[in-house]
Amino acid sequence: MATLPKTLSKTPSFSFPTTKQWVNIIIKGLFYGALIGGALFFLFPLAWMIGTSLKTIQEVQQAQLNLFPSKAQWENYDKIFHEAEFYRAYVNSVFIVTMVLLGTVTSVSLVAYAFSRLQWRGRNIVFALMMGTLMLPYQATLVPQYVLFFELGWLRTFNPVTLPGFFAGGASLVFLLRQFMMTLPKELDEAAMIDGANPLQIWWFITMPLSRPAIATVSVFLFVGQWNNLLQPLIYLQRSELFTMPIYVAQKNNLQESPIPWQDIMAASVLFVIPVLVVFLLTQRFFTESITLTGSKG
Amino acid sequence: MNLDQLGYHEQNLIWTGLTVLFIIVTSTIVGLIASFILRMAGASEQEQRRAFWGFSFAGPWIVGFLIFVLGPAIASFYYSFTDYKVGQPLKWIDIENYRTLLLGEGAHGRRFKQALFNSFYYTIIGVPLQIMASLGMALMLNREGFGIRWFRTVYYLPVILAGSPAALLAWRYMLNPNGGFINEALKRFAEAFFVFDYLYRGFIYIFEGFNGFYIGITRGNPVGPLKYTLPAVIAVLVLLALLGEWTRGKRSLATRSAELLSIAVAYNMMSIGLVSTRVDLSWTYFFGLLLLALVIANGAQGKRLLVKVWQIGGLSMVALSAFMTLRRADYALDNPDAQKYLIALLLVAAPIVVSFFGVWDRRKLQMMGGLAVILVLIILIRVIPGQLDGDGLRPIGSYLTFGTTIKDAKDVDYLEDIHPYEYLSVHWVYGLVILSLMGIALLNNYPRQRHYLLGGSLAFFGLLALGSFLDGQAYFNAFDDIAKAAGRPNYHFALFHQVTDVFPDKDRVPLWMNNELWSKPSLVLITMWSSGAGMLIFLAALKGVPRSLYEAAEVDGANTLQKFFKITLPMISPAMFYNVVIGMIAALQTFESVYILRTTQNEDSLASAAYFLFVRTFRQLSIGQGAAASWILTVIIVTLTILQFRYSQWVNYEV
């Protein structure tokens, strides 16, 4: 409504829109209608998740169209907050994500630095090799990795889930960071070199601080991916004390209960989704920026 | 200090510290080795120092690559030839795992076959839908306006949730057939107005019909004459596209389709031929002829790199086959059966070896053509009589009768008896398609002969398509009678008939996850929910399309559709290519959604190849077979990726 006086002041006398303007208005209305319809489709499962988590078990079993219950059942959350497994899974997930984030970001930035800021013989070959691994499906190495960790006696520990990240896991992340580091001016490195700095110092004192936006992007991607990661924890952790949030939620589903307690499952899901949602909403511009960084030339 | 007394987190911290130390030491060693090698090679002091730093910095990745990628890849290749259970000694069982999986033998082989077909469904149906959705979204959001930024965020939101069990479970609850939100909403929608009701039921009808059809043809039952229809129809379609004025584009269409078909046929033949205990000798010659034709066709067009690829790839295949033959005969050269095959392989390899010498001029082409004719003569003399008599070509002839051969159940038995190598006989038809397409491409400078070949082929394949289709109908009817008499369910199109015989009642609902007709489409629907990832890439590409192009087109009077197809689509083709490749790889690796959404009823109809691999390896602990499955999947993914890069001339990189 705030825009109304402005338009009025622009047009001295009010006149009905012409046919052409009417057509434009209708087209615009249809367009926004379609946009809103799409938005509903994309948001609905989330809303449904939240709505269900506040229903009673009787409501959940009925055929239903109403999104929210007549009376919100906060007890569903209370019940989860009293579960020891929930806290354990949350702590484990936070721990794993932190370790993976630390290790991967450090190692990936080191490798990206080598591929972007240093000139050395064999660089292009190693880089091509790294990009080639993107084509190799992870299934091909999954089995022997399992055997490797079995032989190391690392099954039922966090090690198989956190430690591979320290070896610059994820060629796509290296690529993203490298693309960004390529855009930094060369003169900075050269000046530091003349002052007697070695590459390690240049990496830490010059490249890393300047690459902060790209590192933030990589971290956000890693966080989301790792928080949702189900496969590796499922394969390696194998013990309820070590379970992460995805396994906890998935297990709630596998209970052979009848009727299925959907309200509990959805309450756990809401609590599981909240960190990712918060991180996404705070950092959503990084997602769009990452695309402009790598460019659209696939 | 005893590690076991510490908590899990503390233990992990200690191991982390050790790992970091390990990485620092090994990366330094990698750097030192690199600079040492350069010193040996006589490089300058500065270059050595640079190599040291470069390799040390890249060290974490290099060490990780060796430990987590290269080592495991080699190990899993080895495991795939063994019967291995964790904690037990390895048992070398040769190619048994591959045989089980590729030939679909036994319960596990059959389940793998079905899982592969499910994965293909996710790829063939899911990826195009996803790309269309993300392109549509990007086109809608590629403008400035009120709230557009907000819509972009919302449309992207599902991407960060899609992989998580939470969102998948929410979907599963919403898709509950009895009282789930989606079915309730659909019911209300249908009740609102009688036309909606018919639309709704029509939707269910078409949908179940399509999926019943897909499930029917993937069941692995013999499809009889109908299997010749597919190659014949492909041939007719390509040949129809070749009609009219002859251009360079048409020539490359002919060669490319021939090449793609050859690759598919060669892969199939090799994979079955290598693991099968014995295949007919004629396939060896046939394979050789195919290979030679590819070498000649590429040589005639001066594509030297491709010629090399086919020469070297073909010869290594021949070497591999020779090795397998010898092994089957326990390395005894005097085994007559092995000798027969080795001679055939030698005859196949000889022209390829000859093709290495000399440049591709007219004389060489004539000579190679002569060799090809000799190979054809060998096939005619040695192979065809046996084929006509036994298992190979005869069925083709008997299917060209427009439905008069097969009258009743007796004829079905007869047809099953006369071609035991049924799964291979269809390759003869593919071979004919390839040869005629290649012939048309090679007759580039002979318009009259080309026309004759084109018309003849068109007539032949058209008749074959029609004949085999009519015979296929008869075959199915006869088969249905047999199945009914024997009380066997689910033959061929039984499911299709079952769902299409009656129009859905008023109270029918989509069964979603609880039914094999609906489970795969449900998963595709859920994947489409997260189309935002592709949208973002399209958006970035759309931003790069210069406005001036549209303005120029508007001056020329182009309409919206023309602008979209002539400007937008070519300009964003790199993004399209990227999305296709990435989407295809992701679809073939589908795992999480299957794991979360499976139930006891839908497990088989939902299981993807990656899920099969997971179950075999980590639930049933059959690591050897899991490794074999992972390699088959890898070969499929890598091949499809390479093919997409090879056939990506439609991608326009000049902006």
CATH class of the largest domain in chain A: Mainly Alpha
Radius of gyration of chain A: 26 Å
Structural class of chain A: mainly alpha
Multimeric state of these chains?
heterodimer
As residue ranges, the low-confidence spans of chain A are none
Helix-strand topology string of chain B: HHEEHHHHHHHHHHHHHHHHHHHHHHHHHH
Number of helices of chain B: 28
Average pLDDT, all residues of chain B: 82
Sheet with the most strands of chain A?
Answer: none
Q: How many beta-strand segments of chain A?
A: 0
Counting structural domains of chain A, the number is: 2
Helices and strands of chain A, in order, run as HHHHHHHHHHHHHHH
The average pLDDT value of chain A, as a whole number, equals 84
Q: How far is the first residue's CA from the last residue's CA of chain B? A: 63 Å
Give the C-level CATH assignment of the largest domain in chain B.
Answer: Mainly Alpha
Short précis:
Chain A has helices at residues 4-10, 19-53, 57-61, 75-81, 84-116, 123-132, 139-151, 159-162, 171-182, 186-194, 199-210, 212-228, 231-236, 245-254, 262-294. With 298 residues, chain A is mainly α.
Report what the structure shows.
- The complex is a heterodimer of chains A (298) and B (655).
- With 298 residues, chain A is mainly alpha-helical.
- Chain A is built from 15 helices and no strands.
- Chain A folds into two domains: 18-75; 76-294, MetI-like fold (Orthogonal Bundle), CATH 1.10.3720.
- Chain A has helices spanning 4-10, 19-53, 57-61, 75-81, 84-116, 123-132, 139-151, 159-162, 171-182, 186-194, 199-210, 212-228, 231-236, 245-254, 262-294.
- The model of chain A has no long low-confidence stretch (mean pLDDT 84).
- Chain B has a two-stranded antiparallel sheet with strand order 1-2.
- Chain B is mainly alpha-helical.
- Chain B contains 28 helices and two strands.
- Chain B folds into five domains: 3-79, no CATH class; 97-177 and 512-646, MetI-like (MetI-like fold); 181-221 and 496-510, no CATH class; 225-248 and 395-491, no CATH class; 281-390, no CATH class.
- Helix content of chain B is 76%, strand content 1%.
- Chain B has helices at 8-40, 45-79, 96-102, 106-141, 148-162, 165-174, 181-192, 194-218, 226-242, 248-275, 281-300, 304-328, 336-354, 362-389, 394-399, 409-418, 422-442, 447-486, 494-500, 519-529, 532-543, 547-555, 560-571, 573-588, 592-597, 603-606, 609-619, 623-646, and strands spanning 82-83, 91-92.
- Chains A and B meet through helix 2, helix 5, helix 6, helix 7 and helix 12 of A and helix 1, helix 2, helix 4, helix 5 and helix 6 of B.
